[in-house]
Every structure is written in C-alpha cells, then in structure tokens.
C-alpha cells in the first residue's frame, strides 16, 4: 500500500515576479473554505464522549448577575428577584452535578471515613469511647462537637453522602440520554479534507467507486463497526462500550451508596460471650450488646438458637512462632426455629454460620476458671465458671468475681463480695518475673485473687462493666499483716477469708468461652454487585477506545478511483493508526493499487 502522500511545500507569502515584489493577499473564498473544513472536523469529532453539552447562558452567567437589569417598581423587583434566584439555582445545580464536584465529594467521603477507623465509635464499642474520654479530657469535648465519636451517623457525614448521591444522579441522567441518542443516531458524515485527520491512508485503484464503498461497508461491519453510507463515503464508529463502561461505573457508585444506606438502616449486630456448654437464643435480651439500624424492628429477629458444645484451639508449640494460634474451632448445635430439628456445625474464623440471612461469626475466645465461694457458715454462695478477658496474645486474663446474693457472714448478715481476678494459663514459676502467661494453652494455670466486701453498687441503677470491680463502696479484706488479702492459687487450692467470713476455692475444672457476633447486613450482596460492576465499568472506560473511520472512494479526472481512509479517536493512541492500517490492508486486497501509466517520451528523444 503506498505511503501517505507528502503535501506540497507551502508557497512563500512574498514572491518576486518580473523583478517586482508581490504580496499575496488573503483570499475570502479560501478563508471560508478553511472555516468550513474546521467546522466539519469539529463535527466529526463531536460526541466522542457523553459529557453533557451546556447550553449558552443568555447574558452574563457569573454568580450575582443573573437578575439582569432591574426595572423600577414592585413588579420589576419581583421579576429581578425571581431571575436572580432561578439563576443561582441553575448555577448551583450545574456545579453540583459536574464531574469535578462529584470527585471532590467522593474524596471528602473517603477522607471523612478516616476518623471512624482511628477514633473509637459509640456504635461499635462504648467502653472504648469512655476510656478515650477519660484519657483525653481536652480532646473529647472537641470530638463530641465535631461528631467524631459517631462519624457515620453525624450530620456532616450524612450531608456529604446525600450530596454525592444527588451529584452522581445529576451526572448520570444527562449522560445516559445523550448516550442513548448516540446509539440511535448515525455516524457523522465524512469531512471534506480527510487528510487533515491524525490517521490517514490513500491509494488509487482500477475498481469502481461503488464497489469500493460496498467492500468498505462490509469490511467495517465485519469488524463490528456501526457503519453507514453517506454520499461518496462510508462512515463508521466503534467503541461505545467505553461510554457504556463509564456510565456503568457511575451507576455502580450509586448502587454502592444505596447498599450502604440500606445496610445502615436495616442492619443489626450484637455480641454474645458463651461459656462452653451454654447456649444462646436470638432474642434482644440474650445479647451482651445490640446495635440495630434506625429502621430495624426487633420483632424481625430470626428465631434461631445454638449451643456451644466445645471450643478447641491449637497453638504453635515451639520455634520463632511459638504461641501463634493455628486453629480456633467452635462446635455448635443449632436450630433454625423452635420447631426445627437440631443440626451440628463447626464455626471457624472467617467461616461463619449462616442462618436465615444472619451470620454468626467467631470473634474471640478465652478462659473461665471455675470458682466456688462459701459463706461463713460453709454454705455455697456462688459456684460456676467466671469468664476473664485476655490482655495479651498468651491469654493473660483479668476480670472480676461478684457475689451479689446468697452470701451471709458468720453472724448471718447479708453482704456482697468482690474479687479482682488475674489468671495465667501458663505460669512462669515462682520468682521468675512478673505474673504473665508464657504460652496460650493450659500448661500451668494459676489464679490470683484480691478480696473485698461491702456494696458492689449494682443497686444504683447505673450500668456496670461486669469485668471490672468498683471498690469505691467496698472494704478490703485484711491479712494477718494488715494488708489487702490476696493469694495466688493453683487448681484445687482454697483462699480462706479472715474472721470466719468464708472461703474461695479455685476448682480443677477450667472452662473455655467463645465470643460470637451475630450480624445481619441486608445490603452486602448489593454492595458487592456494585463493586464488581464498578471495576468492570472502569476497566472498559480505561481500555476501550472510542474511534471513527471514514472511507471515501471517488473517480479522479483520469478515470482512476481515488480511495481515502482516515480515523479519529477520542484521545491520542497508537492503536488507531495500527487499526486503520489493518483496515486499509484488507480493503487494498479487494481494491488493489492501479498500475502507474507509462511515461510519455519527450520530443526528440530516442525511441
């Protein structure tokens, strides 16, 4: 295929004729032709994207000048006020629905979510929020005013969320209608000067122009171009999936926002700590903590239940990863409804139990030493496992033992007992440093207690942390040296309370507990669909190029057909010339280059 012809050198604007300097003056006809050519090129490249075309504003369109000239009188003032308000409304809507503002709002939404990840949230862990308030007395009032303890339900986060939602809809609706119009329309007519386009090829052929156009039309349709004949040329375009992907990406963002809103409004999640052998029913009173969405009705809780039959955990016994958890498994027996048959299932980390749209996750686990408390008369006032919370990776655990009712001293008077508890599953040994566990498994369990008596403060009506002991209204038990009574015990040992007040026994049984989170997120599937569609749409908008191709075939003055091919893309790309070269090569096979005419010898030359 011949190379693209080199255009002739431009004429010098000043040339000498017969010794006289002549200056070329602009030709009005040529100027009009150039303007027409530029207009045709602009039309050829128009609507290669679905960016909405803004209609020109009559008069001034900057804020503060929408009202125009204000006529005297009340009617003039009202008309001016109406024009000013309508102009401001149009200006605000155009700004809000611009892609620039949508990207800014998306960035603000992402940036605003950062405090929700770094600062404790009241909707997730109120105890951590209270601890943060106590540790940061100066920052806490500022965070309260800014709503940083409840970021996702704060006014400013909701405002960004709603504005982004409206902005995306305002961006998508006009783009969608314009895209539909492009699909229903025809490719634009070929410009007069195809050689001004970035990708161009031409050659001369003996084939008839009509045959060339028909061959080009069939070739382009075979290559999945949307082609149409217009005059002496064939117009074709391809790559609509780029704009479709762009629209899919933006629609997917709206789907994700809708899914997030549905999830926040209709979700519920709650936590429950269960000692091995105990059970749970999915009712409001059974949860240790419960956080519903604002539109969730607790009557809609699925009526399932389960029992923790056994918890087992294994750990790396030696090496550099000694103590690293290997398996956490909770064997449960569950029923989907009161009348359903029981089923067995093993819940593992990241492998929840799914029941009726809700998921039961295994969150954590720990130890619950079995303790027996006897009063001054030797009667059992309390006996059972006491869950303690781990404070390190080796399950060094702390907590409190509270004896509320059933205890009487040696005189028969009712009182309450409290014990600060410190438990290690693997003790390092006497005189080998502080009392911290050396390994997560129950290799050498030790329980340390310190004893108090008095009022636990549970009758005040204020909520209490069951794992912390409030000693403000309690009195210390004293040992023989007048110090706080405390003792370190092995399984089976007993700590005697002074003055015949009773005893505390660390039984040989040590139970394990597991913490579960029951969660219902109705918008998670929709959000996943939106995320997958957004990735697919973004990939399409990035890797698919919108382009147009024109083929013109006309008969020259010498009777030979001149074929011109040109291409135009939305952005500069090396693929467009390559694709045009392939198309030209295929068309050249059907309409090959005509043979050059023999040169006519000059007069007087030898024959």
Automatic annotation (TrEMBL):
<keyword id="KW-0812">Transmembrane</keyword>
<dbReference type="Pfam" id="PF05140">
    <property type="entry name" value="ResB"/>
</dbReference>
<feature type="region of interest" description="Disordered">
    <location>
        <begin position="574"/>
        <end position="607"/>
    </location>
</feature>
<feature type="transmembrane region" description="Helical">
    <location>
        <begin position="247"/>
        <end position="266"/>
    </location>
</feature>
<feature type="transmembrane region" description="Helical">
    <location>
        <begin position="101"/>
        <end position="119"/>
    </location>
</feature>
<feature type="domain" description="ResB-like">
    <location>
        <begin position="99"/>
        <end position="580"/>
    </location>
</feature>
<feature type="region of interest" description="Disordered">
    <location>
        <begin position="1"/>
        <end position="68"/>
    </location>
</feature>
<feature type="transmembrane region" description="Helical">
    <location>
        <begin position="525"/>
        <end position="544"/>
    </location>
</feature>
<keyword id="KW-0201">Cytochrome c-type biogenesis</keyword>
<feature type="compositionally biased region" description="Pro residues">
    <location>
        <begin position="1"/>
        <end position="10"/>
    </location>
</feature>
<keyword id="KW-1133">Transmembrane helix</keyword>
<keyword id="KW-0472">Membrane</keyword>
<dbReference type="InterPro" id="IPR007816">
    <property type="entry name" value="ResB-like_domain"/>
</dbReference>
<protein>
    <submittedName>
        <fullName>Cytochrome C biogenesis protein</fullName>
    </submittedName>
</protein>
<feature type="transmembrane region" description="Helical">
    <location>
        <begin position="155"/>
        <end position="177"/>
    </location>
</feature>
<dbReference type="InterPro" id="IPR023494">
    <property type="entry name" value="Cyt_c_bgen_Ccs1/CcsB/ResB"/>
</dbReference>
